[in-house]
Design brief:
about 180 residues, alpha/beta, six-stranded mixed beta barrel, about 20% strand
Length: about 180
Amino acid sequence: MTSVTALTFVFLYQANALDSRNAVRQAALLEASASPVPGARLSFTATAYCKGTITASGAAVRSGIAAADPALLPVGSVIQVDSLPDKYNGVYTIMDTGPAVQGRHIDIYMWSCYEALDFGRRPTRVTVLRLGWSPEASAPRLVDRLFKQREAARLAENAGEDGTPVPASNPQPPGQPDVIR
């Protein structure tokens, strides 16, 4: 009887045991298939380019510009790149596209073609800060939330007895033009 109970326990335990390797594979598959949204941190491949004078957006090439697949990161998107050497980590604006830039691949503009060749192909992590040109496609930041809290507190402080905001008094004497500082 004891052996039957022990055998039953072993079968039930093994049937419910989770395989951590399977969970890691599922997490990697989920990240690989996730579409870019503001705030998403995704794996990409980074390369570098140095040729050309005008981007697909019509802007002149300069540092801080990258090319990407417009189906994933439309022109005007802002990304933060990390896990590269410090010199290349930072914020880039997607201003260019290209036939070789497909899928999860970004192409960083560099002035020096020697440096671009030395850069090669590297895995990197990309955080999407904004998708396209629309400011509404940005993830809210801590600074924005703090600014809104400060403005709400300032409005509450300047509210009249009935709760309506009281306009700030003009420090200029009457008849004097307002000076913009």
